[in-house]
Structure formats: structure tokens, C-alpha cells
Amino acid sequence: MFLSRPRSTADTRLAWLFAAPALGVITTIAAFPVVWTFWESLHLHDLRMPWLARPFVGAANYREAISDPRAWSALAHTIAFTGGTVTLELGVGLVLALALSRTRPGIGVLRTAALLPWAIPTVVAALVWRFIFESPGGFANALLSKAGLMEAAPAWFSDPYAAWVPIVLADVWRTTPFMALLLLAGLQSIDPSLYEAAALDGAGQLRQTIDITLPLLRPAMLAAVVFRSLDAFRVFDVVYVMTGGGPGTATEPLSLFAFRVLFRDLRFGYGAALSVLVFVVSFSLALLWLRLTRLNEEE
Amino acid sequence: MMPWSRRLATVGSVAIVAAGLIPVYWTLVASLSPEASLFTAPSLIPTALVFDHYRALFAGLAFWRPIRNSLVVAGTTTVFAVAAGSLCAYAIARLRFRGRNLVLAAVLAVSMFPQIAVVSPLFLMLRQVHLIDTYPGLVLPYMTFAMPISIWLLVGFFRQLPPEIEEAALVDGASRLQAFRKIVLPLAVPGVTATAILTFLYCWNEFLFALTFTLGPERQTVPVAIALFRGQYQVPWGQVLAGSVVATIPVVLILLVAQRRIVQGLTSGAVKG
User: Fold this and answer.
1) How confident is residue A93, by pLDDT bands cut at 50, 70 and 90?
2) Is the dihedral angle over the CA atoms A252, A258, A262, A263 positive or is it negative?
3) How far is A236 from chain B (nearest CA, A)?
4) What distance in Å separates residue B67's CA from the closest CA in chain A?
5) pTM above 0.90?
6) Any B CB within 8 A of A293 CB
């Protein structure tokens, strides 16, 4: 390799010199703050009561979280949201990826068009779907009333369960293109000769999909699901814009609860403890994803 | 594969993609409809095109301000992230040094940090140095995601460049620095551009930091401005939808210009969903 030139000490010095600005910034504004959040979570820090200073309280903030029903329901909401959206995305994304992989002319145009919902700001996606469900002139209610189901239509944003429908739909709409592209990349890496051999043996399309495509796509699906889950677990924007966590706190996920504790109640210690929870789950999934993708590459 | 299945697949993918575009299209139509028809039966075919909502949106130059803020913040962040990022990415992709893999792993790890886990210390830090509600007060936090994303993408692009050309320059007596500036950077222009475009897109769409670190309309970015749009009694939907369309225009342009690179970046796992 060209790297074998006897320059390695000079290279090392140059490498650290090159990396220094970026690493310095990352350390200051990302790594250091995360450590700070952990540290803060072990302290009582209430911005409304500066005279209390910032005493060390050990695990008190975590104990509070464990005995706080609102924290538990926020956790339940986050898990339900993650499970629900990722499952739906996987389903629709798989169908779209399978269809796209068999579309010959025009795949580029379709892929670009499919990406639009993913690329628009989450805030915009959330507002558009809120309007779809909220306005009497919105599509959701128009479709329901066309089907003669208007009576059955709930008041979407004041029902604690129905309020999840627009939230989940908006998120699935926004992130399915991403899932489909990940799966499409997986599909395109399957050796086409397998299908030819199967076709020679008389296996039909469906057989081929069930016996070749799906098993071989499993590693890619698993990695995509883990990756999407770690992202879904920190959900904030969609819910903030769509329901604000309401009605009441019926759709409040962990990130939003933590945000409220931090910036409305100004309880930085307790808010930090809640943030640490989001961090730990999301980061564990990230490590799992790294392992999975590395395993896939080695195969 | 049999032709009928191809045809079915084509019809299927067109149908799904078209269904996904309906909300976007309808938003465009609704933003151009008169206020009265916004709340009656929805229609995919515009009955009357009026620019009232856009006029109201920009009245008194109100919406230019968030647009300017977004452009300044996203643009500045992108320039710094890509500049520092390409140096770091070159080191990781091309220079052999101890700890190289560790640096790359750390960068990737940081790109996966949930924003909520860093938002409160960043707030305290920015408050300490009086940067709340300022442009640097947004650019700095934006680096938490912009920097690792650009590094990760650029490492991929630098690795794709053939090492032989650079090697030849080194043999001819060029220094590493010269080789980087004169040979590698010009070759990497497409990759650097794509990285800049994607980084800009993330900054343009960001919400949580912009919401937390601004105090009022003076420094609010486009997503925050639209999200906090409230009339006195109810949401002015016409203007909200018009604002949504305006916020989407740069995104559409970016997609059209850079779709191939975006797909490449997406599937390399660099990019968040």
C-alpha cells in the first residue's frame, strides 16, 4: 500500500493536527455536555430556587423517576410509539422496496419522489397531518364521511387514544422512504443468480420471495429496524407540534416530558435524569446497530 | 422474471410513491385556496388560486426574518462543519495513525446522541457566555450533529478516491499538505458538495435546539416560526400551510440536485431517519 512509505511519524502528527479542530468541537459541545447531563442527574438543581445551590443527591432523581407515574406513562408512550411506527414502516417499506427493486425504467425518478416526505422538515410534516385530521376540510374526516363513518370518527385530538393515530401516521409517512431505501440496498445486494437457479427449478415469484428474498434480507431488515428504533425512541418534534403531548399528557413521550421538566419547571436535575434514560436506551440501540452492520459487512 | 410481475411492481411502486406525495400536493393546493374553502370539503383540484395566505405570511416582511435566520444559521454551520470535517475525514480515510478507528467510532457515536441528552448543559453553557438568542448560539449547538455527519459522509467519499494519484504526487516530492490541497480536494469536490447539501438540509429542518436557544421572533428559524404560529384565538391555517410550502421549497431543490448522493449517504448508514 502507498501508506508503507516511511512517513508514519510525520503522518501521525499531521493526522492529529488535521483531526484536532473537529475533535475539539465535538468534545466541547457533544461529549462534554453528555457527561455533564449524567453529573447533573445526580444533583438537585432547580433554576427557580438558586439559593438551594446544587447539592449532590445521589440517585434521588432516579428514585423520583421510578415513583413518578407520569415518567412511567411517558416511557410506555415512547415504547408504544417506537414499536408501532417501526412495525408499520417495516411493513410498508418492505412492500415499497420489493416493488421498487422490480421496477426497471424510472426507478431513479421514483426514488427521488419517494424521498420527499423524508426530506421535508418534521415540523412541516406534523403540521400538515394535523391539518388533515383537525380541519373539517381535512382529508381524514372527508374520507370518513364519504364512507358514511363520520358518526364513528372520534374528535381526534381530544381523545387520548385517537390522538395517536395522526401522530403515528405522520411519522410513518415521513420515515417509510428511509426504511424502503435501506431495504432496497439490501435487496440489490442479493445475488441474482439465486433467482435464476430457483426459476430453473420451477419456483414462482412468490416462492422466490418467501424462500430467497426474505431470509437473505433478514440481516438488513434487523439493522434497519434497530436503526429506526433508536431514532424513534427519542421522538420529540412530531408530538410537540401535533398534540403538545395532549390531551393532558396522553401522548407525551419521554423526550417531551424531559424537555418540560427542564425548560418549563426548570428542574435541571430531574430533567437530566430523564434525559439520561433516553440516552441510555437510544445509545444501547446504536451500539447494537453498529454490531449488526459490522457483522453484515463481515459476511 | 415475468413481464406481468414487472408491470405489477411498477404499478405498485408508482401507487405507493404517489400516495406519499398526496399530502404534499394537497398542502400546496390548500395554501393557494381562499380561507373559506380551507374548512369545507377538501379537493385535490384547486377551485380558485389565490395568493392571500402568502401575502399575509410575508406582510410586513414577517416571514423573511425566520428565512434569513435559517439561511444564516444553516449556511454558517455547514461551512464550518464541512471545513473542519474534511480535514478530520481526510486524516481518518488516508493517514495511518494509532487510534484512527477509535476516532471514527467516537464520531459515529456522537452522531447518535439524542438531542435531549445534551440540550440542558448546552443551554447552561450558552447562557453563561451570553449566547442565548444569537446566531453563534445556534451554530455551536448545531455542530453537535452537523460535524459528525459531515465527517462520516466525507470519510466515505475520500475512501472512494483512488489512492494512486496521491501516491504519485508524494513520490514526486509533494508534501502531504500539498497532496491534500492540490490533488485530493479538487477530486473530492462532488463528495464535499453533497456533504454540504445534506448537512444544510439537517440544519434547515432542526427544531429542538432552535426552539430552546431562541427567545423570540428575532432569531427564530423557519421550523420554530411555523410551529409557534398562533393566531389570537385559533391557528391561522392558511398561513401555516403557506409557510410549510415555503419551508419545503429548498428541500425540493436539494433533492432534485443531489438525490443520487443523498441515497448513497443514506444507505451507508450515515444519516438519521
Assistant:
1) very high
2) negative
3) 8
4) 14
5) yes
6) yes
d(CA B53, CA B34) in angstroms, rounded, equals 8
Write out chain A residues lying below 8 Å of B6, CB-based.
102-104
A126 neighbourhood in chain B, CB within 8 Å: 227
> Which domains, and CATH codes, for chain A?
80-298 (1.10.3720.10)
* Max CA pair span of chain A: 80
Q: Which of B182, B5, B107 is nearest to A30 (CA)?
A: B107
Mean pLDDT on A193-215: 87
> Which residue segments constitute the domains of chain B, with CATH numbers given?
1-50 (no CATH), 61-267 (1.10.3720.10)
Between A51 and A152, the more confident residue is A51
Average pLDDT over residues B23-30: 89
* CA-closest candidate to residue A236, choices A56, A90, A74: A74
Q: What is the ipTM of this complex?
A: 0.91
Cis peptide before A247 (omega within 30 of 0): yes
Question: Cβ(A238)–Cβ(A126) under 8 Å?
Answer: yes
pLDDT, mean of residues A112-141:
87
Q: How far away is chain B from the Cα of A293, in angstroms, using its nearest Cα? A: 9
